[in-house]
């Protein structure tokens, strides 16, 4: 049976069901590469502090390097009966170097390890998300370029509002995802993995020994590891996890809104878009169906991602300092959200290039005269009519067209003159076109 890292003061053995219940090895093994890195730095710090001989540290580092290579090759198979990753690493090392492995944990705590591991995990995945968002933005850029000046319908309150370009729609999402990217790069700027906090109170290993060990392990300071200056905070802090989950929740909200736009615009009721078949599904009963399932899954994933953020916020609320076992429960929500968001970004970047506009349907919808109300009012404003008055005149025109069952563009000049002398059928017809609107905009 796997050996525990503790137990000397206990006279009875742990309840088997509790042991199984409290185990984390089945998910924290995900952090193995970072935990081995912690061990490498710690062994070097112990050597620098004179607590391990050069021969001992060499043997341990060699075994740790072999373990690192196994992990890299996907060959890390910890005993599932281990309590956690940290115990698994020590027990695997013991198989390699014998009792020398018992020195690995000198003046070290799993509280320090797990806080270190999790921050490195978050930083690495923030970078990966950043890169995937870059690819997604490129996909939006290409779509926007394909439909650069194609007019489209803009909505507020899900009611037809004004003419826009389809590229404006793409740009809106590119901007949202651009802000998500910025949040991720800012995140990497200030989230710094720490080491050397002991259980909560620091240890007698000098900071200089750790600092030297960090330099030796990461000479270019790519990982930006620091020696813990506030140990009590380090072992208690899960801000990095909450913050990454918050960034993911905002990003997921953007994904969800985009998905909803795609679902709505591809319905027979709107019918503006054709979605790529490779990401749609059919019905087992209704032969005609083409369902936007990927978009529905992306829209629905907001429940999971926001839930994961909220679950951790609630877990941490009111927790006394410093480390508490409650914190073990941060991992599953974090891993689940990170994997989900990364997968969503991959799918989305491949989906976006396949979107096609149904330009004939859109052109027909753009004949709706209400879409040009603002432009008519604006024309009057340029003729020195106060905006409120212009607003009322256009409102009157719309009411007249509805009550008289006549299109605004069909109202004869004689009747138009009663609304305002500057209005003529010819003028209104020229204003009420998508081309006029797009040419008149400052963007
Ligand atoms: N499995 C624990 C976690 O994920 C590791 C730290 C455990 N520390 C302890 N003193 N039991 O938080």
Can I get a quick summary?
The chain is mainly alpha-helical. It has helices spanning 16-22, 25-28, 32-48, 54-72, 85-97, 110-146, 166-190, 207-217, 231-236, 239-265, 293-316, 331-351, 359-365, 373-381, 387-403, 413-416, 425-431, 434-440; strands at residues 151-156, 159-165, 194-195, 226-227, 273-274, 356-357.
Give the topology.
Blueprint: H1 16-22, H2 25-28, H3 32-48, H4 54-72, H5 85-97, H6 110-146, E1 151-156, E2 159-165, H7 166-190, E3 194-195, H8 207-217, E4 226-227, H9 231-236, H10 239-265, E5 273-274, H11 293-316, H12 331-351, E6 356-357, H13 359-365, H14 373-381, H15 387-403, H16 413-416, H17 425-431, H18 434-440
Helix pairs in contact: 3-4, 3-6, 3-8, 4-5, 6-7, 6-12, 7-10, 10-11, 10-12, 11-12, 14-15
The structure holds arginine.
Arginine binds near residues 110, 114 and 325.
Task: Explain what you see.
The chain is mostly helical. It has 3 domains: 16-106, Orthogonal Bundle (Fumarase C, Chain B, domain 1), CATH 1.10.275.10; 114-195 and 229-363, Fumarase C, Chain A, domain 2, CATH 1.20.200; 367-440, Orthogonal Bundle (Ribonucleotide Reductase Protein R1, domain 1), CATH 1.10.40.30. The protein has helices at 16-22, 25-28, 32-48, 54-72, 85-97, 110-146, 166-190, 207-217, 231-236, 239-265, 293-316, 331-351, 359-365, 373-381, 387-403, 413-416, 425-431, 434-440, and strands spanning 151-156, 159-165, 194-195, 226-227, 273-274, 356-357. The strands form 3 sheets. It has a two-stranded antiparallel sheet with strand order 1-2. Strand 1 and strand 2 (159-165) form a beta hairpin. The protein is elongated and about 100 Å long. The mean pLDDT is 96. Bound molecules: arginine (ARG). Residues 24, 28, 84, 110-111, 114, 325, 327-328 line the site of arginine (ARG).
């Amino acid at each position: 049976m796997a050996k525990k890292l503790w137990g000397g003061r206990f006279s009875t053995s742990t309840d088997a069901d509790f042991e199984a219940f409290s185990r984390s090895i089945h998910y924290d093994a995900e952090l193995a590469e970072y935990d081995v890195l912690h061990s490498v730095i710690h062994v070097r710090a112990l050597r620098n502090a004179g607590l391990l001989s050069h021969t001992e540290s060499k043997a341990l580092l060699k075994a740790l390097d072999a373990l690192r290579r196994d992990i890299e090759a996907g060959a890390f198979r910890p005993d599932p009966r281990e309590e956690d990753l940290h115990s698994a690493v020590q027990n695997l090392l013991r198989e390699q170097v014998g009792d020398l492995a018992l020195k690995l944990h000198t003046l070290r705590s799993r509280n320090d390890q797990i806080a270190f591991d999790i921050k490195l995990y978050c930083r690495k995945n923030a970078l990966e998300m950043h890169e995937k968002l870059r690819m997604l933005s490129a996909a939006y850029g290409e779509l926007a370029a394909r439909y650069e000046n194609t007019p489209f319908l803009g909505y507020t309150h899900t009611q037809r509002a004004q003419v826009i370009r389809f590229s404006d729609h793409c740009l809106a999402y590119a901007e949202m995802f651009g802000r998500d990217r910025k949040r991720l790069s800012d995140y990497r700027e200030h989230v710094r993995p720490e080491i050397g906090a002991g259980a909560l109170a620091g240890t007698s290993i000098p900071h200089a020994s750790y600092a030297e060990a960090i330099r030796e392990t990461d000479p270019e300071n790519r990982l930006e590891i620091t020696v813990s200056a506030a140990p009590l905070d380090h072992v208690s802090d899960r801000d990095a996890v909450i913050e990454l989950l918050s960034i993911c929740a905002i990003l997921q909200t953007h994904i969800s809104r985009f998905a909803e736009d795609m679902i709505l615009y591809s319905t027979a009721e709107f019918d503006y878009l054709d979605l790529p078949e490779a990401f749609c599904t059919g019905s087992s009963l209704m032969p005609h169906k083409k369902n936007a399932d990927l978009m529905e899954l992306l829209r629905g994933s907001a429940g999971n991602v926001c839930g994961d953020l909220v679950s951790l916020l609630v877990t941490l609320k009111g927790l006394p300092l410093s480390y508490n076992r409650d914190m073990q429960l941060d991992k599953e929500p974090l891993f689940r959200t990170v994997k989900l968001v990364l997968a969503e970004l991959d799918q989305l970047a491949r989906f976006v290039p396949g979107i096609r506009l149904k330009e004939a349907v859109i052109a027909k919808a753009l004949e709706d005269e209400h879409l040009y109300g603002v432009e008519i009012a604006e024309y009057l404003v340029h003729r020195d009519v106060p905006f409120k008055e212009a607003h009322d005149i256009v409102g009157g025109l719309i009411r007249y067209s509805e009550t008289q069952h006549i299109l605004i563009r069909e109202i004869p000049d004689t009747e138009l003159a009663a609304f305002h002398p500057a209005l003529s059928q010819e003028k209104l017809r020229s204003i009420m076109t998508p081309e006029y609107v797009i040419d008149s905009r400052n963007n």
